[in-house]
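[[Encoded backbone]]
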Amino acid sequence: MVRMQQKTLNKKDASKKKHFLLPPREYRRKGQSMVEMALVVPILLLMLLGLVEIAAFMGGYLDALDLVREAARFASLRDPFYVGPTDQNCSTEAFDFYYDTVCIFSPPAGDPRCGTNDPFCNGVNSATTLDMTRDDVVISAYTVVDQAVTASYPAPSGYYAYSDHDSDVSNNGNWQKSCDGDVVRFTPYFTPSKINSYLSSSAPPKRAFVAVEYYYCYEQLLKAPLIAQLIPEVMRIHVYTVISLPAAIPTSTPYQTPTP
């Protein structure tokens, strides 16, 4: 009995010795795996953060694009030459072609971002926040006769920039600036010459268009240190839409038949 117990102990000791006396190659493999993991994990983590940031940026871009399309559709069904009661309020019946088109970019009614009696509310913008210290909406309308732009509205500038008509008088002409406040452009993207370049000779000779541009500063979602060093934390998104504006199509002036 004693000999059997002694043999069992000897076997356990032998197994322990085998465990601790692994070949050096086994130790090298384990150490190599730890080093490889230490090198790969940060790269994988950075790639994951980058994918999340890119997805968030694309979401912001698509949200902005949906807004300009909705605003252009709204404007295309209205009269830019309307004369009647007007005000700077998105919730009243008084109508201003340019201001009420910009109202599409305001938060929807009941949104927490709408203050008490906030005139810039009642829109459809539930995804982005229009920051009028750096963002902007530019609207322009064009009349085309014989394959050339003959007039642009509103006169005399030929464009309407919301930053020039809001309550913040210290930040006008935001569309001209980068998100850092540097002046980078002097004319909106759409001009009479730009519209002329789009015209087709096979189209009717009399037409009209409205163009809506959205200049939006997108901020990184995660602001990861390394990503923020490679890509600016705030990036300008510029989206636009051009659509037909039937109310601005020129029509022949009626005249009376002279009496004999």
User: Anything to note?
Assistant: The radius of gyration is 32 Å.
